[in-house]
Amino acid sequence: MSNSDTSSIIHAGLWLVATPIGNLEDLSPRAAAVLCAASVICCEDTRHSGSLLKRIGASPERLIVANDHTEHDAIEEVLSLLAGGAVVAFISDAGTPAISDPGERMVRAAIAAGYPVHATPGPAAFVMAATLSGLPTSRIAFDGFLPRSGSERRERLTEVARERRTIVLYEAPHRLERTLVDLAEVCGEDRTIVLARELTKLHEEFWRGSICDAITHARTVEPRGEYVLIIAPHETAQIEVTDELIREELSNRTSRGLSKRDSIDEVTAALGVSRKRVYALAVES
Fold first, then answer.
1. HSE (side-chain half, CA atoms, 13 Å) at 20
2. How far from 253 is each of 16, 29, 149, 198, 246, CA to CA, in Å?
3. What is the pLDDT of residue 4?
4. Read out DSSP for 148-181?
5. CA atoms in the 13 A half-sphere facing the CB of 47
6. How far is it, in rounded angstroms, from Cα 250 to Cα 32?
7. Which of these, 58, 135, 195, 211, could form a disulfide with 53 (CB 3.0-4.6 Å)?
8. What are the residues whose beta carbons fall under 8 Å from the beta carbon of 259, sequence distance 6 or more?
9. For 93-152, how does the pLDDT look when each residue is reduced to its tens digit (9 = 90+)?
């Protein structure tokens, strides 16, 4: 497929092109057409993307590295290219750009500068994992990667615990067990979870069960391949929030070394009660 075959149907502007998350056959014909028509392609890793581009016969004039560290630096150059009427494609290593991958800042800059932004829809790991999870999909909350530490991580975990929609997270294999342990503390060990990995690949795997059993499972498998975690929604009718329960939750957190303030914030979010009530019980103890 040559550039001349496709350039007449590809509008100038910035194109977000979804690429396969595993199986290369999932690249759509339209995505291939845009990549072949693009004079410049932004990518996370030139070696990784180079093999895909070679496979479809795409030969852009340039590849610009735009990963988490360099995307901001590439914006000015891309805007200059767009000003000249170029077709600039943006791809990530896998999946849809700007979804827990680079691309968001580039899109925002192009829109602010008045340049057209297009996309070729395609693979997204969280969508595939959610649809195959067996959990409710009428309402989904996608939260990407959790913060690795600190108060921001605790706040996000408590938000997950009280979320009434099915929650989808990403996690690296070497951090899976720790995240499951943290989820068990805020969501309860019995909450249903689905672990998905190696999506669309030969060894694609879905594991379903309780968070407690998921911890055991994580300790018995080789940590490889990025995980998608799909967590069942919180059901407020499951528990009665008594003063005794609040005191117990406060005690659990302070015993882990959290400050009284952080413990109050976490319990308020996790149990869905007023901060004033939790604060009053915390002061009593």
1. 20
2. 44, 53, 16, 35, 11
3. 43
4. SSHHHHHHHHHHHHH-SSEEEEEE-GGGHHHHHH
5. 0
6. 55
7. 58
8. none
9. 999 999 999 999 999 999 999 999 999 999 999 999 999 999 999 999 999 999 998 888
Round to whole Å and give the CA distance between 75 and 83.
12
Q: Ramachandran region of residue 206, left (φ > 0), alpha (ψ -120 to 50) or beta?
A: beta
Q: How far apart are CA 167 and CA 77, in angstroms?
A: 37
Longest dimension (CA), the chain: 76
Only one residue has tokens 């795997």, namely: 205
Q: What is the mean pLDDT of the chain?
A: 92
CA distance readout (Å), 113 to 42, 82, 108, 138, 246: 18, 10, 9, 36, 51
The H or E element spanning position 104 is helix 104-112
Strands 192-197 vs 205-210: parallel, antiparallel or unpaired = antiparallel
Name the residue type at position 165.
R
Sign of CA pseudo-dihedral 121, 126, 132, 134:
negative
β partners of residue 229: 169, 195
DSSP letter assigned to residue 95: B
Q: How far apart are CA 199 and CA 131, in angstroms?
A: 12
Q: Cβ of 15: how many Cβ atoms within 10 Å?
A: 25
The amino acid occupying position 166 is T
